[in-house]
Write a structure and sequence with these properties.
about 160 residues; alpha+beta; single chain; 10 strands; globular; disordered N terminus
């Protein structure tokens, strides 16, 4: 019985640790631009931070996100981490929040949309999608300016 309890608590610790993966790595523009202008085909904000995303890990974890029809984002057990406008990583509870009609969603299975509630900053909410074009997010809060995360270089998973 003691071994069973030890195994049980070990599994819970592993599960809890897995829920706090950091998919984002801060990068310098000079290190990822390869001499080209990353913003050549994109809007260049006055202030920005650059990150690389481990897209495959994020997509895998999002597969466990419950539907917003069954649980509120604030109660979801699925969490992800996202950089904020200051370059710090923040955690959000996530639910899948489909915006397409069911027939279209069945046809375009690689387009997924999500909503989330801030954990580190409970006044923050996130809406994001993951498509063939990458990850696109908008984060709003009552105590901060709205910020966006958009792909700059899909091949190298660079985001601003």
């Amino acid at each position: 019985m003691k071994n069973l309890l030890t195994a049980f608590f070990s599994m819970i610790a592993l599960y809890a640790g897995a829920q706090h993966k950091n998919y984002w790595t801060s990068v310098r523009e000079a290190d990822v631009s390869n001499g080209k202008d990353l913003f050549a085909n994109h809007f260049k904000p006055v202030e920005y931070k650059l990150f690389q995303l481990q897209d495959v890990l994020l997509r895998a974890d999002l597969m466990a996100a419950p539907s917003e029809r069954t649980v509120a984002a604030a109660k979801s057990a699925v969490t992800i981490q996202v950089p904020n406008a200051d370059g710090q990583i923040e955690s959000f509870r996530i639910v899948e929040a489909p915006v397409m009609e069911a027939g279209l969603a069945a046809k375009y299975t690689l387009i997924k949309t999500y909503a989330g509630q801030g954990i580190d900053n409970p006044s923050s909410t996130i809406r994001f999608d993951i498509t063939h074009s990458g990850f696109h997010a908008m984060v709003t809060s009552v105590n901060r300016a709205t910020y966006y995360i958009n792909p700059l270089d899909k091949a190298n998973q660079v985001y601003a």
